[in-house]
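Entry type: protein chain
Record version: 2
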Amino acid sequence: MFDRFGEFDSYEQLNELAENLFNEGDLDGIRILAEENGIGEFAGPYIEGDIPSLCDAETAAVGKLTVEADALKLKGLMLDWLEYAKALAAKKEEVAIGIRRKNRSLEGCMAVLLKAAFQFQMPVDDKIIKAAGIKGAGKVTFGVPSMGEAKKLISQYYGGKK
């Protein structure tokens, strides 16, 4: 992850390097930069002059989330949480900007959500346990933040408004 060019703290930094690489004629460098940041599909249009910059706040944020998610190999509900983060990046620029920060990561965001899941745990009614066909489990607890609560936690983690 971010092996050749390192992690960027903002989409502006990404665009600045892309412009410098373009001015130096390093088109392969632009492609590598874009791939490394999860926005490979924008390298061609940028190089061809079809778009004025390599990325904006949203595309840089979604790209970073994509790269981090691939490394974390997310499954199940965590994939939903990832999609919530992507949707928030599209809806709230302050969240998109926060996602790109070096001091923020998808791993850290997932940790906040997992911690909340443990805090939301509550006993499952015996009728539900019986209906599920679970025998000999003893006390069963379950807890996951609601979609709204998860979005609020994601927004807070990445520095967005509550």
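Comment: The mean pLDDT is 94.
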